[in-house]
Amino acid sequence: MDITEVKVFMKEGQDKKLKAYATVTFDNCFVVRNVKVIEGNKGMFVAMPSRKMKDPCPKCNFRNTVRSKFCNQCGSSLPHSEPRPIHTGDDAARQSEHKDIAHPITAECRDYIQKKVLEAYESEKTKDPSLVSSPSSSRQPLPVKAPERRSEYVEEDNDIEL
Fold first, then answer.
1. For the domain that residue 36 is a member of, what is the CATH number?
2. Within a 13 Å sphere around the CA of 97, how many CA atoms are in the beta-carbon half?
3. Which residues lie closer than 8 Å to 27 by C-beta, 6 or more apart?
4. Which residues, listed in sequence order, are joined to residue 30 by a DSSP beta bridge?
5. Taking the model in full, what pTM does it have?
6. Cα Rg of the chain, angstroms
7. 84: CATH
């Protein structure tokens, strides 16, 4: 398996930990989108695409995100399945709320993906800032034409007597 293409979309607001999103193509036939490039405490790393975990409300069965206090559908209080962890400096609590959609199984594969994505990120970062593409700026806005104003009434000379 080879990575045949990596597209990097720089994230605006470089003061945040999330620096970019990447799209990785494998063997010109399989694509993984929303791979994140993150600046952590120990340097840059790649996070695979994930989704928030959800638990059903015992009253109405609406699926709310994990650790929600109240149901977003019926408003009832939700039971706490586990105590909220105290912030320890690492992102263990945040990671337990998300589940990877796609991820490498072996450490070698993870290292290979991370190396290729970070190389593409560094290459994109060195480009001219005006040429850096992002998902929101890659779409050109369509020109907006003001609607024509048409008068639907005909002025009549009406005499009003009081």
1. 3.30.1120.40
2. 12
3. 1, 2, 4
4. 26
5. 0.61
6. 26
7. 2.30.30
